[in-house]
Design brief:
This protein is an alpha+beta fold. The chain has a single domain, classed as Alpha carbonic anhydrase (Carbonic Anhydrase II, Roll). The chain is built from six helices and 19 strands. The strands form four sheets. Strands 2, 3, 5, 6, 7, 8, 10, 11, 12, 14, 15, 16 and 19 form a 13-stranded mixed β-sheet that branches. A two-stranded parallel ribbon has the order 1-9. The protein has a two-stranded antiparallel ribbon with strand order 4-13. Strand 7 and strand 8 form a beta hairpin. The protein is globular, with a radius of gyration of 19 Å. The N and C termini lie far apart (about 40 Å). Bound molecules: 2-acetamido-2-deoxy-beta-D-glucopyranose and zinc ion. The site of zinc ion has 4 residues, from strand 8. 2-acetamido-2-deoxy-beta-D-glucopyranose (NAG) binds next to helix 3.
Amino acid sequence: MHFITFSLIACCSLALGWANEWGYPDLDNNQDEPFPKWGGLCDSGKKQSPINLHVKGSLKGEFDPLKFANYDEHQKNLKMVNNGHSIQLSGFDHELTLSGGALLHDYVVEQIHMHWWSEHTINDIRYPLEVHIVHRNTIYPNMTMAANFKDGIVVIGVLYHVSNTRNEAIGSIIKSLGAVKAYDSMNKPTLVADSLAVDDLVPSVESYFTYAGSLTTPTCAEAVTWIVLTETFPVTLDQVNEFKEIEYEEGKQLHNNYRELQSENNRAVVLVEMPEDRSGAAGLTASVSLILTLVLVGGQKFLL
Ligand SMILES: *[C@@H]1O[C@H](CO)[C@@H](O)[C@H](O)[C@H]1NC(C)=O
Ligand SMILES: [Zn+2]
């Protein structure tokens, strides 16, 4: 039941039969293939996502810490589906609730999916993988309703950087990927065999970019408060390549599923950073703090 609902939202809010009426250029085959027009708000919107996030030009923000409830719970009944546009996880045992930060409401996790390569870039750098944890504002009964309001949805974006070290949490997802890769199994959910806790997919949440944007798939509803974490997790390219093998048509693999960058259009992008007094030993003198501040402002932290 949940899966049908989510496919509808992820696609076009139309009918399942339309699931593949929109798609991505196959950049592995032709780097110059233009990005297709998806129509509606995707083409006309002024608060679209993803965007390039950059330290220079961001506003400095300070908020209460983000609060996470049940993200550490090991999921027993997590389902995975190849919806032709991504790999999506849902079916959480209990409500996973996000609050705090600049958020005025409680948000619950609806689904998790990934993009290969990343949709957001940080300081013009694209990462090999981006995980989206999609949350719905609990004042709205479902995602369709939430997508109509600018405070309807929060997506946490987690970027992964290339490493020689396999990522265990991503590895748990990959273990069940074989069952959903083929076109025949598209839109047929399978159980995620390994026990996974959602916070295994989330690095430090003390530092992040936040801005008002949109879903990155049709309908491109401008209902999303984005929280893109600045800390990244390692993943191997072999692991990312496993996702590239999922089929969206008979014999056609989804080599990439990231949307092209959108115009920032003078939107405020806020950079929330770990308070400096927590980044070093207690008893730092004011002058040492000042030096630390200058180093951070110099952007060293983001030359990844
Ligand atoms: C979402 O909620 C609204 C209002 O309760 C309802 O009319 C609509 O049918 C629901 N949509 C889905 C897809 O469940
Ligand atoms: Zn996404």
